[in-house]
């Protein structure tokens, strides 16, 4: 008279169902290729750009200040933002490296 419990089709109690796990794997793969991987690539390019900054390069800071690098240290840069006006900034504060001659065209 007792009714036996109904189990999902094809799975034994306590078994592993690959088809139930597959959507999670697909979502993780999409997440990886659409979000994580491009962000890692961008971070690597930014790190390479920061390590290649040298004296004479024209840069833009995160605050939007445009200037020419006069001294390049390991952690800090000295940037000339106007004739005779130099500021000290951290390398990480540089958001972009400009092509030579960009400052003159501004």
TrEMBL record:
Membrane-spanning residues where?
A: 18-36
Transmembrane helix recorded as keyword:
yes
Q: How does it sit in the membrane?
A: Single-pass membrane protein
For the biological process aspect of GO, one term held by this record is:
protein transport
Primary location class: membrane
One of its Pfam families is YajC
Q: Which InterPro entries match?
A: Preprotein_translocase_YajC
Compartments, record wording: Cell membrane
Q: Which GO terms describe its cellular component?
A: plasma membrane
UniProt keyword Signal, yes or no: no
Keywords for this protein: Cell membrane, Membrane, Protein transport, Translocation, Transmembrane, Transmembrane helix, Transport
Q: Family membership, please give it.
A: Belongs to the YajC family.
Name of the protein described by the UniProt record: Sec translocon accessory complex subunit YajC
Organism of origin is: Pseudogulbenkiania ferrooxidans 2002
